[in-house]
Amino acid sequence: MSIGEMLAATVPMARTLNLQFLETTPDKAVVALPDQSEYHNHVGGPHAGAMFTLGESASGAIVLAAFGDQLSRAVPLAVSAEISYKKLAMGAVTATATLGRPAAEVVAELDAGERPEFPVAIEIQRGDGAVTGEMTVVWTLRPNG
C-alpha cells in the first residue's frame, strides 16, 4: 500500500476531499485537490478549510515518507500550523511539501531520547503555477511509552 493509499484509508478527511497523492518521497510530497463545487467558497474557488486540509495532508505524507521507519518507536503528530492565502485560488490546486530539517538530524534527536520538532513547508499552487498559499506545519515525533 502506498503512503497516499494508506492516508486515504486511515484519514477520513483525505477521502472526503478526494485528495490525490501524486508523489510521496522523503524529499517531496505532492497532493492535489480536484475542483469540486461542494468544497467551493463564496467566490467559486476551493474553500480555505479545504486548502488547509490539502496542505496538512501533504505535510503528513512527507512525514510518513521520511520517518515511516520510526513508527515502531514514535508517533508523528502535528504541533502547530500556519497558513497564508496569497492569491485567489480557482480550479484544482496542488500542494507541494518539503522537510525543513534533514531527516537524519531529526532521527538523531529521537535516538538521543529527545522529542524532536521539525517544520514542513508547503506551497499551494493553482493550475497556472501561481502560488495561492504558503503553509508551515510543525511536526514532532513523540516517543512511544
Automatic annotation (TrEMBL):
SUPFAM superfamilies: Thioesterase/thiol ester dehydrase-isomerase (SSF54637). Pfam families: DUF4442. InterPro entries: DUF4442, HotDog_dom_sf. Signal peptide: none annotated. This is DUF4442 domain-containing protein. It comes from Streptomyces caeruleatus.
